[in-house]
Specification:
This protein is of the alpha/beta class and about 400 residues long. It contains twelve helices and ten strands.
C-alpha cells in the first residue's frame, strides 16, 4: 500500500463518472483498489457511476463488494441480445452498408497500416452492432423499450406517442439491484462506514440534486434519478413530491465538488475514474471521431478549477491560522474586548475548523481509447464488458504503482 498516513483523518474518496456501459471500467478500477488494500470512506457517482457507488456502499456482501459489483456487470452483459440473432437475412445488407458507407477503409501505403485499419473497422463495426442491439432490444437487466416492459404496469401514455417524454424504461434496473443492494446500509442511522453520494439535476430549474446517505435514506428512486439520462431517452424520476430529476451528468459528470461541499473538514485522498479521457494522442480523423471527441470533452473531468480553488483556500486558511494564533496568544496584552474575542473565535471556527479540507493526493485513472467510437457507451456485449473490467484493473494498478515508485524515489 502507499504511504500509511499518520493523519488518520484523511478520507479516501472514489469518484465515479457516468458513461453507460463504460461503467464496467469503474468496476475494474474498484476491484484493483480493493486488492491493494484501500477502503473507501466516500464513494460518489453520477449516472452509471452512481449505480456502481450504490452497489459498492450498499453491498449485501460487505466483505466481497468488488466481487458483487463484477457479478452485477456480468449479469448486465447477459441481458445483451446480439442483433445478428434478430434477422440473419438483413444482417448481410446491414454489414455491407456499415462497412462500405459508414466505415470505409482509407487509402494506405503499407500492408501493416491496412491490417491495422481493418482491425479498427472490425472493432467499430462490432460497436455499431452492439449499439443497434441496445437501441432495438434494450437490455433486459437494465432498460427496455417502454412497450416491451411486460413485468411493470403500463404507463397511461403509451398509446399516445405524440406526448412521449421517453422511449426506454429503466425500471428493470430496480429488480436487479435488489439482488445486490441492501438499502438499510444507505441511510444516516446505519453503521455502514462507507458514505455514498449520488447526484442528479432538477428538470424544472436546473438546480443540482445531491442524495447523501449521511443525511437521507437512499432509495431505488434516487438510483433511477441519477441514471435518468434524457439523451438516452430515459424518463425523469420524481424523487419527492413535485421534484423531478434527470441524470446528474447533465451538470457535472465528475461529482468531486459535491464531495468537498458535503465533507468540508477532513483532508482527502481522491481516486478519480475517468470514463471520458481529457487527453488524446491525435486529432479526430473523420466525422465520427469528431462527434466522439466532442462528447468526451462534454463529459470529461472539469474539476481542475475546484482543485486549484481548494489549494488557494488552504493557503488562505493557513494564513488565518497564523493570525488567529497571534491574536489568541496576545489578546490580554492588546486588551481586546470579550465580544471581539468571541467574534474572532466564532469566525475562526467557521472558516478554519469547519472548512479546512485539503486534497492531499489525487489519482487520475483514465480509460484508453485505441479506436474511439461514438457508440461505445451503449455496448453491453459480454466481450466488451469483460474487456472494460480488465482494463480498469490494469490501469488502476499502473497508476497506483507509479505513484508508489515516485514516493520511494523521493530523497
Amino acid at each position: 500500500m502507499l504511504n500509511e498516513e499518520k493523519d488518520k483523518d484523511i478520507e479516501k474518496v472514489l469518484i465515479l463518472q457516468g458513461g453507460g456501459s463504460l461503467g464496467a471500467f469503474g468496476c475494474g478500477v474498484y476491484k484493483s483498489i480493493v486488492k491493494q488494500g484501500f477502503i473507501m470512506d466516500i464513494i460518489a457517482g453520477t449516472s452509471i457511476g452512481g449505480i456502481n457507488a450504490a452497489i459498492i456502499a450498499g453491498s449485501k456482501d460487505e466483505d466481497n463488494a468488488a466481487q458483487k459489483l463484477e457479478e452485477f456487470w456480468i449479469e448486465l452483459s447477459e441481458g445483451f441480445i446480439p442483433i445478428k440473432d434478430f434477422n440473419e437475412r438483413n444482417l448481410e445488407y446491414i454489414e455491407k452498408f456499415y462497412k462500405n458507407l459508414l466505415l470505409p477503409l482509407p487509402l494506405t501505403d503499407t500492408m501493416s497500416d491496412l491490417q491495422t485499419q481493418k482491425h479498427q473497422q472490425k472493432v467499430k463495426y462490432d460497436q455499431i452492432q452492439s449499439f443497434s442491439s441496445s437501441a432495438v432490444f434494450g437490455n433486459s437487466k437494465f432498460f427496455m423499450p417502454r412497450w416491451l416492459v411486460y413485468d411493470e404496469p403500463l404507463d397511461s401514455g403509451i398509446f399516445n406517442p405524440a406526448k412521449w417524454t421517453y422511449i426506454y424504461d429503466h425500471r428493470p434496473l430496480i429488480r436487479i439491484l435488489e439482488k445486490y443492494v441492501d438499502y438499510e446500509k444507505l441511510n444516516p442511522h446505519s453503521n455502514n462506514k462507507t458514505r455514498v453520494i449520488l447526484t442528479a439535476v432538477n428538470v424544472v430549474n436546473a438546480r443540482p440534486l445531491v442524495f447523501d446517505s449521511h443525511h437521507m435514506q437512499i432509495k431505488p428512486k434516487h438510483i433511477l434519478a441519477t441514471s435518468a439520462y434524457p439523451l438516452y431517452n430515459f424518463p425523469y424520476v420524481e424523487v419527492e413530491k413535485g421534484v423531478y430529476a434527470w441524470d446528474g451528468g447533465l451538470l457535472s459528470n465528475t461529482p468531486l465538488r459535491e464531495v468537498l461541499d458535503a465533507s468540508p473538514i477532513k483532508n482527502k485522498k481522491i481516486f478519480l475514474v475517468e470514463n471520458y479521457p481529457k487527453k488524446i494522442n491525435h486529432l479526430p480523423g473523420n466525422l465520427g471521431e469528431v462527434h466522439h471527441r466532442a462528447r468526451d470533452i462534454i463529459f470529461s473531468d472539469k474539476t481542475e478549477h475546484s482543485i486549484k480553488m481548494s489549494e488557494i483556500i488552504t493557503r488562505y486558511l493557513d494564513f488565518i491560522e497564523d493570525l488567529y494564533q497571534i491574536v489568541n496568544n496576545n489578546k490580554d496584552r492588546i486588551q481586546l474586548e470579550d465580544k471581539v474575542v468571541k467574534k474572532i473565535n466564532r469566525k475562526y471556527k467557521k472558516y478554519r475548523q469547519d472548512h479546512g479540507a485539503q486534497i492531499k493526493e489525487i489519482f487520475y485513472i483514465s480509460r484508453d481509447e485505441e479506436f474511439p467510437h461514438i457508440y461505445e457507451n451503449a455496448d453491453f456485449s459480454p466481450k466488451t464488458i469483460f474487456g472494460s473490467i480488465k482494463e480498469g484493473e490494469e490501469k488502476a494498478y499502473k497508476v497506483i504503482e507509479s505513484h508508489r515508485t515516485k514516493i520511494k524515489q523521493r530523497p
